[in-house]
Amino acid sequence: MNNELLELINQYMEKGDFIGEVSDDNIAKAEKILEVNFPPEYKEFVKNFGSGGICGVDVLGEKPQY
């Protein structure tokens, strides 16, 4: 994952709002349904942060199912 992005997230985490981690299985299911292969950096991001935003910028991923 991009170190600059990680630094920003860590610096502003209290101003950010990220929802959950995404499992490898859910990432694979999404790739199959969408018939795409996500880049490794995107997979790593959603595995760690899911989706959310920081400082008013949305970073989209997958919201967990409740």
Question: Which key terms come to mind for this protein?
Answer:
3 strands; elongated; 3 helices; Knr4/Smi1-like_sf; SMI1/KNR4 family protein
Q: Strand portion, in percent?
A: 15-25%
For the biggest β-sheet, the strand order reads: 1-2-3
Mean pLDDT: 76
Helix content: 40-55%
Largest sheet: 3 strands, antiparallel
Spatial gap, N to C terminus? 27 Å
Q: What is the CATH homology-level superfamily?
A: SMI1/KNR4-like
CATH topology descriptor: SMI1/KNR4-like
Write the layout of secondary structure elements.
Elements: H1 3-12, E1 16-19, H2 24-34, H3 40-49, E2 51-54, E3 57-59
Antiparallel strand pairs: 1-2, 2-3
Structure description:
It holds the Pfam family SUKH_5. InterPro entries: Knr4/Smi1-like_sf (IPR037883). This is SMI1/KNR4 family protein. With 66 residues, the chain is α+β, with helices and mostly antiparallel strands. It has one domain: SMI1/KNR4-like (3-Layer(aba) Sandwich). 47% of the residues lie in helices and 17% in strands. The chain contains 3 helices and 3 strands, in the order H-E-H-H-E-E. Strands 1-2-3 form a 3-stranded antiparallel beta sheet, with no helix packed on it. It starts with a helix and ends in a 7-residue tail after the last strand.
